[in-house]
Recover the amino acids of this structure.
């Protein structure tokens, strides 16, 4: 006679927390072993770290039969989990199994704490196997898929997205949280940092988090069951859940940690695109794309014999929605666009673009590198297929980024990196792969960075993405008005209502590099060059621009410092050598 759920609860709750994990292990000792011939490949449960064979069968041929479950594993901890499942489900009718709140059992036994996320995937695999049989046998059942012992895997809803919406942002108080911005430099100045479009600075809490991980519990992820490993896994899953909530992904399983935007766009182009884009198909991008969302599609088009097409732009640098159907047709497989242009600042109408792409039968891929840090992003409302962004532009570390995909898109995309952690089964000649997100996380993750990325995103959520956006929009208006008064200064891109917090400009006769030297002398830190958008700069008829990009920590005083430094450059540098051609972007 096997143990019952009530008996398990009683014994478990009597134990010291240190002995509880040992108890879960010991629970499996009495589980009958499968004979070798019973360990059939068709009964293997996918998603498990260890081998698990599970069979669930009806014990009578009624409309709602009782179900018998037998299972075995080569890992003792899994045998413990099997014992819990059998105790909970055994002897119940199919309809009862479907309705049974199995997560309550997992919660009471604290499985979230005692088993790793990958084990939870395996447990979920067993639950799914039992449920699918129960659903099959009980036609009237309504399925509520439970999730294996993890709050981090709970679906997120719009209501759970934290945002301090209407609170105005106190930029001085925000700046005070950034050690790099409050330091006094060797020349006695404080930095006026206006290059957040390249990389944002990090608040103290993100720096502290990286340090905490390194100093207190660093270990590899999804590998060790010792306490450091377990803590790392928890922290990573918590970070994943924070990111999912921030962009309102339906589930944290739709969030994969990647090296950054560039790597992720390559993963999509060659993981999804190589499979679905064929000779003669069209890929549509825009001339305003960063090379990261340009070159992978260009190369994919060449490889597949597809055509790379460019959505027409208006003279002021927006996608010309009225002319979009000239290129977005039933031959289009992918529309790849940036949420916000990193040079023009243009905010693209993603929801409308997603609708138009889907109407044409294409998917939409969004390079969110410049939009996610500044604009509220709700992937479900926008209905985008893939969205990617980088950690270092959202106040987080370098070396980590995010791949979001609709569940179906992630399922159909192939991985482009193969190796450890991303597999399900590996044989001498064939391998099968894990479910997303593990499928896209081959090898060792940037663990510390991925955890600290969650801290950065939580920091943004606490400030409120709406508050950040409103603050930056105010700075954009002020800066646009102030810089427009400077004679000979041209700002590229559309009017402020169509833009994010980026101003790219040139001053007649003044090369951006010469200007940068003077600005730096004033500790006004901007970027100049083509900003990885050569085709756009060619269309603008200039080789380089100066770019000031704003973040939550910038103040009106920063803008005045920029304007004064530009004015000084104009009055001190001999001009006339650098004459920009007058080009539009259309
Ligand atoms: N896309 C846009 C719009 C960008 O601004 C950038 C970086 O500046 C990238 C992609 C590339 O991001 P990463 O260098 O983090 O891969």
């Amino acid at each position: 006679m096997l143990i019952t759920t009530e008996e398990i609860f009683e014994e478990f709750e009597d134990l010291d927390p240190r002995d509880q994990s040992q108890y879960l292990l010991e629970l499996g000792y009495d589980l009958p072993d499968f004979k070798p011939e019973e360990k059939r490949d068709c009964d293997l449960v996918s998603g498990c770290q260890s081998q698990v064979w599970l069979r669930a069968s009806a014990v009578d041929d009624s409309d709602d039969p009782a179900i018998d479950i037998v299972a075995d594993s080569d890992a003792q901890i899994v045998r413990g989990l099997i014992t819990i499942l059998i105790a909970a489900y055994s002897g119940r009718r199919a309809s009862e199994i479907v309705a049974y709140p199995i997560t309550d059992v997992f919660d009471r036994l604290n499985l979230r704490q005692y088993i790793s996320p990958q084990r939870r995937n395996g447990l979920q695999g067993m639950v799914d196997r039992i449920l699918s049989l129960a659903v099959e046998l009980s036609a009237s059942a309504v399925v509520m898929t439970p999730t294996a012992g993890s709050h981090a895997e709970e679906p997120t809803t719009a209501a759970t997205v934290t945002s301090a919406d209407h609170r105005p942002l106190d930029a001085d108080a925000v700046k005070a949280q950034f050690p790099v911005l409050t330091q006094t430099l060797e020349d006695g100045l404080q930095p006026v940092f206006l290059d957040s479009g390249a990389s944002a600075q990090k608040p103290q809490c993100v720096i502290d988090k990286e340090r905490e991980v390194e100093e207190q519990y660093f270990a590899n992820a999804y590998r060790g069951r010792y306490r450091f490993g377990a803590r790392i896994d928890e922290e990573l899953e918590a970070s994943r859940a924070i990111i999912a909530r921030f962009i309102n992904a339906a589930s944290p399983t739709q969030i994969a940690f990647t090296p950054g935007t560039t790597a992720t766009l390559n993963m999509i182009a060659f993981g999804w695109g190589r499979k679905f884009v064929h000779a003669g198909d069209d890929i549509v991008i825009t001339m305003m794309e960063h090379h990261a969302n340009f070159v992978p599609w260009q190369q994919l088009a060449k490889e597949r014999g597809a055509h790379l097409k460019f959505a027409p732009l208006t003279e002021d640098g927006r996608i010309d929605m009225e002319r979009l159907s000239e290129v977005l047709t039933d031959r289009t497989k992918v529309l790849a666009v940036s949420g916000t242009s990193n040079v023009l600042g243009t905010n693209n109408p993603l929801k409308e673009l997603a609708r138009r792409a889907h109407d044409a039968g294409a998917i939409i891929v969004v390079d969110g590198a410049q939009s996610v840090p500044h604009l509220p992003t709700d992937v479900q409302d926008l209905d985008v297929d893939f969205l990617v962004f980088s950690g270092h532009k959202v106040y987080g570390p370098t070396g980590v980024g995010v791949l979001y995909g609709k569940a179906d898109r992630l399922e159909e995309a192939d991985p482009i990196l193969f190796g450890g952690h991303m597999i399900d089964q590996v044989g001498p000649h064939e391998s099968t792969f894990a479910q997303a997100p593990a499928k896209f996380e081959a090898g060792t993750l940037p663990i510390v960075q991925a955890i600290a990325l969650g801290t950065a995103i939580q920091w943004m959520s606490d400030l409120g993405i709406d508050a950040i956006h409103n603050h930056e929009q105010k700075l954009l208006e002020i800066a646009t008005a102030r810089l427009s008064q400077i004679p000979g200064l041209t700002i590229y891109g559309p009017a402020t209502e169509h833009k994010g917090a980026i101003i790219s400009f040139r001053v007649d006769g003044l090369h951006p590099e010469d200007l940068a030297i003077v600005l730096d002398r004033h500790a006004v830190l901007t970027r100049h060059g083509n900003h990885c958008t050569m085709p756009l700069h060619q269309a603008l008829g200039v080789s380089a621009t100066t770019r000031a990009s704003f973040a939550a920590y910038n103040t009106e005083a920063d803008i005045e410092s920029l304007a004064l430094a530009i004015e000084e450059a104009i009055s001190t540098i001999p001009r006339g050598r650098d004459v920009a051609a007058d080009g539009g972007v259309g």
Notes: Residues 117-137 form the longest helix (21 residues).
